[in-house]
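Example 3.2
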Amino acid sequence: MIERIAELRADAEAAIAAASTSAELEAQRVRYLGRKAELPNVLRTIAQLSPEQRGPTGKAANQARQALEALIAQRSGQLEAGELEQRLQTDRVDVTLPGSPPQPVGRHHLLTATRREIEDVFMGLGFKIVEGPEVESVYYNFDALNFDVTHPTRGRADTFYVQRPEARLAPLALRDQDAGQDAPRGTPYSDVLLRTHTSPMQLRAMELEPPPLYIIVPGRVYRRDSDATHTPQFHQIEGLAVDEDITLADLKGTLLAFARAIFGPDREVRLRPHFFPFTEPSIEVDVSCFMEHAASERCRVCRDTGWIEILGAGMVDPNVFGYVAEHGYDPERVQGFAFGMGVERIAMLKHRVPDLRLLYDNDVRFLEQFG
């Protein structure tokens, strides 16, 4: 029996050494050390041997099994290292390629998508897009737009003013003196601010280009407001059309085309008298409600009035043209209309967003609804 164990051990050692893959080595392990292999069966039958044979035979069988297990472990490590090296050589991965499956490329934010949709509508109507500075002067933001010097929006409670570097170093008494004795109470000494609307580009565009002029001005604006329907920074789109024989009917037709493109082909618009410093006459513009009205519930959007306010507009005040008359905008010869809308408001109305702050929370669960 001991001679047979030695033969099995020698055969197994030769077979293990000859194995060239992990699969072949596993097959040899099963062949010589598996449950049905001859060597394990020898250990199971030791009790049937005579007492004088049990000790030597059991010792030889255990030594053979332990030696083969150690040899298999050693050979397995060698084969796995070689196979890993081979895979590294043949299975190179280009880490610059997209993942598998590829990750989604993302989508435009709801405000960006709404702004681009509005831009597309007006570009189709013949308007071009221009942009202007967000840090603006008092002259373009208020003075040239016909704002009275006592208008409340000029105050620091409503507008973010920016100090010039030299103003920060000036003594306080000099600052008060710079404000002027005739300036209304609370007038800031700085003549630089974060623009409160995109309307300053009306003047800047007319200074650069003679009539006819048809532009829209998208961009960020800043006001001291913060609640469910207002944020300190938001987005506006200003519109300006200047030409000869422009009338309020042209303004209504333009806004009707816009409302139907954004809110649906069955929409109507309504004009209501209002006041803006830089338009005369001035109007508020409503669109007919696009929500489904149930007899048992009050409409949360229009409150059962049938109309939703969407923007302000009007005919350009001749006083505004007076600031750019030398650039070809003679108020006796040209007329124009202007309008301004909040991108957030259009997005909220169209997509039924209940709280403006949801647009800025960056909650992917909310934003993914509008992909």
